[in-house]
Amino acid sequence: MRELRELTDVEDPAWPGLGEELAAAAARCELLPADPDRGRASLLQLQVTARSYLGAFVLHCGGLLVDDGWLRVYGSPAAANARDLPSLARVNGFPDVVDPAWRAEAGLVLAHDVLGGVFLLNGPAPAGAGRPGAPGEVVYFAPDSLSWEPLGAGHGAWLSWTVSGALDGFYEGLRRPGWRDEVRELTGGQGLSSFPPLWSAEARQDLSATSLRAVPLAELLRSGRDTAVQLDGTDPGFLGVT
User: Fold this and answer.
1) What is the 3-state secondary structure (H, E, C) of 52-83?
2) What is the 3-state composition of the chain as percent helix, strand, coil, each rounded to the nearest 5?
3) Exposed e or buried b for every residue in 98-116, given b needs 16+ CB within 10 A?
4) Which of 31, 68, 29, 66 is nearest to 180 (CA)?
5) Where are the beta strands (DSSP E) in 12-164?
6) Are 139 and 148 a contacting pair, CB within 8 Å?
7) By the 8 A CB rule, do 31 and 23 touch?
8) CA distance 188 to 74
9) Tens digit of pLDDT for each residue in 202-235?
10) What is the pTM of this model?
């Protein structure tokens, strides 16, 4: 296990270049302040260097709210933050004390959207987790299909994509008029539950006829996983802890 200084004292660290990219993003982004101690602990547990976007983000960022919080990218937030966004460590169940034996072998949850969608970085054993995509590739659990979709990008390219303004196209057909106002009212631990559910024929036919209500995000994730198992017998696996 590499020591902290081996992970932070590197040539060509991704920060502050990453910070400048996020500040100049085309999408509406709010960068939350980081807790330095939490960031260092997460970096040490992940065993990635500050040269990578993942290492730089978890070390310097408390989290990122994209499109008024529609997408929540997890980092190392200070104890009090505007949306009560959980940390990457909490979402992925990191041990309370850095443990050399613990590894995110199946994958690392990077972000959730308000509909219960999950962006996950495939670990070294994606086949065993039953997900598509290669190790190190970001995949998406879609709440309207209840299945994983490979995105063909690693973490750095994915993070740049999320702030590029591309989410409008990605979520086309899933954002109804007034969605920004609905999203701004949510905390980092809440999502929007749809009835009829997004995967139903009714919702696919007419999204405007669905009703949305704020619920704990954990409830959305649990429902998505359970329903996927019931409908096609496939367990999507770990979707994060909120």
Assistant:
1) CHHHHHHHHCCEEEECCCCEEEECCECCCCCC
2) 30, 20, 50
3) beeeeebebbbbbbbbbbb
4) 68
5) 29-32, 63-66, 71-74, 107-113, 118-122, 138-142, 147-150
6) yes
7) yes
8) 10
9) 999 999 889 999 999 999 999 999 999 999 898 9
10) 0.96
